[in-house]
Amino acid sequence: EQLSSLGVLVCDMEPETITASDSSILENLKLCPALTGTQQDALNAVLLRGDTTYGDPSSWDLQTLQNLGPLVLALNQTTLSLVAEAARDAFGRSIAAAY
């Protein structure tokens, strides 16, 4: 409940706070125009736990990647390597088709 009232204030959170927060913090992080490298690391740590609404990265499909919205730009190689190649390829094609 407190996270929803924070809005974009989460953009200034320390990485340790991000990883210690409820996974619903991801929805607030979508509002951030940019994340620092350490915030991106924290974001990936939260996603790698697999207890988010997105589930484990190994179960992600095209729709999941699209639902991540701008957070997809912060995914690191470790997280992306768990996503099925077919989902990554489909996501790439969907971006190319949009432009």
UniProtKB/TrEMBL annotation:
<dbReference type="GO" id="GO:0009986">
    <property type="term" value="C:cell surface"/>
</dbReference>
<dbReference type="InterPro" id="IPR026664">
    <property type="entry name" value="Stereocilin-rel"/>
</dbReference>
<dbReference type="Pfam" id="PF06060">
    <property type="entry name" value="Mesothelin"/>
</dbReference>
<keyword id="KW-0325">Glycoprotein</keyword>
<keyword id="KW-0130">Cell adhesion</keyword>
<dbReference type="InterPro" id="IPR010335">
    <property type="entry name" value="Mesothelin"/>
</dbReference>
<comment type="similarity">
    <text>Belongs to the mesothelin family.</text>
</comment>
<keyword id="KW-0472">Membrane</keyword>
<keyword id="KW-0732">Signal</keyword>
<dbReference type="GO" id="GO:0007160">
    <property type="term" value="P:cell-matrix adhesion"/>
</dbReference>
<protein>
    <submittedName>
        <fullName>Mesothelin-like</fullName>
    </submittedName>
</protein>
<dbReference type="GO" id="GO:0016020">
    <property type="term" value="C:membrane"/>
</dbReference>
